[in-house]
Inverse folding.
């Protein structure tokens, strides 16, 4: 707004000295810049959203057979009982959901505690502990995957759902810890003291004051953990043994074509994510009001 | 079970009412000591934050702690409700008696202490909850569940804090939406909702404008009849306006380690401290020559 009014004021204060020339050159350029920014913004949005849009559109396609790559006609039938046409896909999806929930719960519990410790206390090794969190986030998945496989094989742990869950908790934990820590750093310590002052013990203080205040961070961490876990391919493929998850099933199915059920499941996950994110945004707004 | 345990410990702290009965026969002017600090030193790790504090705080009086920054006023104040216990490295030498019982005795629970000895903080810090929930929080954790009882406590606490008329129509609104002065009075209401014996105030008006400060000071005068108040303040005029007794703290600089230790210099009736200080350092401070 201030930028908009600036040339007006300049013109009023200096009426004699050829105002038209200065304006004439600047205004169009600014408009061009605005248009370019507008176009660029939409280009980026389309670029980001197009694959998702294609997935959603093709979930309503009615192809013949398993090759869902060309548009044939509109149908809703995959959103009915036909969704379960491939039992192995259904099982893989169930496994993915189970893993994602377990990994979310596990990483939220452990990661919240880590985030609290890193945000609240100063102790020997704090810097190292912080660094380890970011190292775990930035380490390539393939490195984590191969080292986890070596670890499980060395300890003779049978590969399957439990090893997948352990691996997922491991790489989700740091994301939760980092988001919770960021929230803890903004916490006003005197609020906890006020609660203690009113006679609340450590646990009551945590439950009634600390946790509600850091909850947006915990929730953000949980959503992040769920999203990262449900679509993980690299680590899962190393530690899964013969168990299949949704991404593993898709990968092995691509050679024989992707049935529309895959797009439907993808769309459902996407919509569920949107609903959760919107709900948390609404709750967050209500909480701060 | 936690509740029972806390109550069990709480009964070891004497009830102020019981003490009042005992002293019923004595003249009105008789001073009842609430806190008796004896040679108190407080450390953070090996660092001595404040040294050798001995003073007695009396019932239904307002005691002010004055002194420059780093003189340990707040640290001593926080020792009176064991808030320093929450700092892992802090420890205390010496002894503080509360109504004849050692505050740091092995049988005394800090939770029970803090419930009896309330605190108001420098920056108004309402919980991010509604006005009603802010005041009801303390009574709730202390086991009061009945809605009608909570309603009563909320109303009477807000009335005592001189906030009721301003908020009675919006008790459900967030405590964060109040102005600084209102928020601080809400924090006072929250503190007195658990019916404490003593209210400790750590520079309660330093973040407020003069009008809001005036209202807090008026409020302190009103609360004095029911509570014993200890206030830390940077503002000497505030000390003269509100307090009956004043303790002056100063800073000792240790040249070897370049650390500063708070030291208690002088304590007495406010008028005497300001008009006829015994110590040169007190005189220099109250006449504005230092600090």
């Amino acid at each position: 707004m201030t930028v908009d009014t600036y040339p007006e004021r300049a013109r009023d204060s200096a009426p004699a000295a050829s105002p038209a020339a200065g304006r004439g050159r600047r205004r169009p350029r600014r408009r061009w810049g605005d248009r370019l920014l507008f176009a660029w913004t939409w280009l980026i949005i389309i670029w980001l959203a197009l694959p998702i849009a294609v997935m959603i559109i093709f979930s309503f396609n009615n192809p013949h057979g398993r090759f869902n790559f060309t548009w044939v006609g509109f149908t809703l039938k995959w959103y009915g009982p036909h969704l379960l046409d491939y039992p192995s896909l259904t099982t893989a999806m169930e496994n993915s959901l189970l893993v994602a929930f377990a990994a979310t719960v596990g990483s939220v519990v452990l990661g919240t505690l880590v985030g609290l410790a890193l945000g609240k206390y100063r102790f020997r090794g704090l810097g190292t502990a912080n660094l380890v969190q970011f190292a775990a986030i930035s380490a390539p998945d393939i490195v984590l995957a191969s080292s986890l496989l070596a670890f499980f094989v060395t300890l003779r742990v049978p590969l399957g759902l439990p090893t997948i869950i352990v691996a997922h908790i491991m790489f989700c934990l740091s994301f939760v810890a980092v988001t919770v820590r960021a929230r803890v750093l903004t916490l006003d310590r005197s609020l906890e003291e006020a609660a203690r002052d009113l006679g609340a013990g450590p646990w009551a203080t945590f439950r009634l004051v600390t946790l509600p205040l850091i909850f947006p961070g915990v929730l953000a961490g949980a959503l992040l953990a769920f999203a990262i876990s449900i679509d993980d391919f690299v680590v899962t493929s190393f530690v899964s043994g013969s168990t299949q998850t949704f991404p593993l099933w898709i990968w092995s199915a691509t050679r024989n074509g992707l049935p529309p059920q895959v797009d439907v499941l993808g769309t459902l996950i996407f919509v569920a994510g949107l609903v959760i994110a919107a709900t948390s945004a609404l709750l967050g707004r209500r909480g701060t009001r | 079970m936690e509740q029972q345990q806390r109550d069990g410990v709480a009964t070891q702290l004497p009830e102020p009412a019981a003490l009042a009965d005992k002293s019923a026969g004595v003249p009105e002017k008789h001073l009842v000591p609430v806190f008796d600090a004896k040679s108190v030193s407080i450390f953070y790790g090996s660092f001595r934050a404040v040294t050798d504090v001995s003073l007695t705080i009396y019932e239904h009086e307002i005691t002010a702690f004055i002194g420059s920054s780093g003189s340990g006023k707040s640290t001593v104040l926080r020792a009176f409700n064991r808030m320093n216990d929450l700092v892992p490295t802090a420890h205390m030498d010496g002894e503080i008696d509360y109504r004849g019982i050692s505050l740091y005795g092995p049988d005394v629970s800090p939770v029970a202490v803090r419930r009896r000895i309330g605190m108001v903080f420098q920056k108004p810090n309402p919980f991010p909850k509604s006005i009603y929930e802010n005041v009801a929080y303390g009574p709730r954790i202390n086991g009061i569940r009945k809605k009608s009882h909570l309603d009563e406590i909320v109303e009477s606490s807000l009335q005592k804090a001189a906030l009721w008329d301003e908020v009675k129509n919006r008790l459900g609104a967030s405590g964060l939406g109040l102005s600084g002065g209102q928020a601080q009075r809400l924090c006072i209401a929250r503190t007195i909702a658990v019916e404490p014996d003593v209210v400790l105030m750590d520079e309660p008006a330093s973040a407020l404008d003069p009008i809001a400060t005036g209202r807090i000071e008026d409020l302190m005068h009103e609360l004095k009849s029911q509570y014993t108040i200890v206030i830390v303040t940077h503002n000497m005029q505030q000390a003269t306006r509100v307090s009956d007794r004043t303790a002056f703290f100063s800073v000792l600089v240790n040249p070897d380690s370049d650390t500063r230790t708070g030291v208690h210099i002088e304590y007495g009736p406010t008028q005497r401290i300001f008009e006829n200080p015994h110590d040169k350092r007190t005189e220099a401070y109250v006449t504005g020559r230092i600090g």
User: Anything to note?
Assistant: The domain at 86-258 of chain A is CATH 1.10.3720.10 (MetI-like fold).
